Amino acid sequence: MRRTETIRPKDRKYEALVRHWLIFKQFVVLRRRLLFRTYVLTPLGVILVMALLYGVDRLIKNCIKITFPASVAVMLINFAFMCILASFRRPYIDFYLNVIDVPLSWALRWMNVFFTPAFVTLPLSPWISYKEALLIVAVFVIGYLISFALLSYITMLGQKVTRSFKLKSIFVRQDELHNGMQEGSSFAPPSTHKRSSSTSSDIGEEEPVNGNESTNSSIRIFYAESDEMEPHDPLLDLANNSGISLSQLNSRATSGLHSIVSPKHLPSDTIEPGEEAIEIGPSRRTVTNGPSQNHHISNGTFLRKLKPVIHKNPEVHSAMTVSSSESPNICQRAITRQYSKQIDLYFSISMWDAHLHHILYGLGFFATIFTYYFQWYTTPFHLFTAVCMFMIVTDSEYIVNRPKLKKFAHPVICSMALTWIVMLISVMIKHRKVVYFLRELRSYKTGRNYLRLFDNDNYGYHQWPGAGDIFSSCMDVSIVGLSLPMYTYRKDLKRHFFSMVPPILIFTAATLFLNPLICYKIGISSKRAIGFAGRSVTLALGTPLIANLDGDQTVMAVTTVMSGVIGALTGGRMFDFIRVPEDDYVTRGLALGCNCGAIATAYLLGVDRRAAAISSLSFVCYGALMVILSAIGPIKHFVHQLVGLN
């Protein structure tokens, strides 16, 4: 007896390991295409985009001999190329979008991570006096309020002048959400009316099986409703702080449910004669009693009603009902046990879906701890530290389940603080002196990104890229990815062109010239005054903008993120205070897009999807125009004269 008692725990552990290993193998088989796309095609695509950007940068500097960021140039060229390609046969643009979507959507999803180097290196920036700090805060607050009001009123005036000011109900706007894509395109979502009518017809046509239904043995699993996102919408990527594509999770959730319930992935003895086949559909799911000789379930049974759900959000508005007749030949306990095993397998694979990247980056973090303490090159440790701290903020249930806290706890700011703490503890363990913390920060971003990787004359052979340089290199890929939302909602830009362009032009001139001039006149230093020119530009485009103008990147980064956070927190109340109509999505989208950037666009996704589309167009067009103007020599010289620089 003692011997068996000592063996049983080992057997249980062995069985548990075998069971988890089999589940992992099944997960790899079911998701092999997605895993290949994520961990093989995406890195290759990012490297190819960087190679293209490097070639364009050499072409601009050596042949054209002007100062212009290659990432913005490729973004504009890509947008124009997609518009031209869309005028030809549709399969061409669909194929091209399928190819570029692999690296560019990934870059958009991780864009917030690429913002962190500007904040992590804040202790390296020169100290400022209390007076200058208070002046910066005052200019920021007053400028934010004035620009918010002026953008709103100028946009409403432009709509009245062009006679395009039409108040539409929320229902009309939701029907027009997908007008940026061509009908019939593989990237265009199905019509809302068709989807709702099909759902209602399924509910109306459903009849009880065999004339009656048993409510005693019904098991209902409810899914929350969400019908606002389509699979390939770039706004999803802009709003997503996590590295997982929300659209990929949509298809994974529904396809995973079908794959597990499908007999192809179940043991042959799971479905026995007399047991019931489970139909999966968008409304109610009913278990029908099948004859004992027909115990094979075809895949068509599951796919018939599953197809409308494949391209929806995983939070599908539906109820799953398993009911059986009161026949004494049916063992309800066996049915429940069979169904519970299937659901358990489904959730196990879903856990691998949701947390595989957490496991991989966590293993990378612990592995690089040893390289940090025993090697001189600290970039791997810094890289995994930044990503893991970012994941802790974005995926922590404590923050995710508290919407109010989530608004204030912006991932860029919170992950920066956690990164500092981890780096400080590591430095104290390794060097036992706080002075080395600043040295670590200098090695965090050396300036040797992909554009200067082969510049041995200025950087030497022993100055390798830091984690911040890797992030800044990926930032250029995300700038190219901003062409995707521009293309997706190009028809909105065409429809509201005369309402959007005048406010953007006026705001561009005021931001580029008045902000530095006012800041310099009230006592802010020249470099920091120029940094205020990028206060409302999204950080992806503000970085090359301030680099062209030779301004302070730190001021630009802090004010940009704070503008987005404040816009997300107070945007709705500000619009109510200045009496902007709730149905005027053009004004709301343009004001938040130009004044608050991508962070406000993510906020608008949960409030008004159409306003979010206008917002994405606004901040991309506004930022691109600012970068173009900053690359013109006479304009750059004029800005320098405004702030007293020769």
From TrEMBL:
Q: How does it sit in the membrane?
A: Multi-pass membrane protein
Annotated GO CC locations: membrane
Q: Does the keyword Aminoacyl-tRNA synthetase apply?
A: no
Q: What protein name applies here?
A: LrgB-like protein
Region annotation (Disordered) maps to 182-217
Keyword Iron carried by entry:
no
Q: Which domain of life is it from?
A: Eukaryota
Keywords assigned by UniProt?
Membrane, Transmembrane, Transmembrane helix
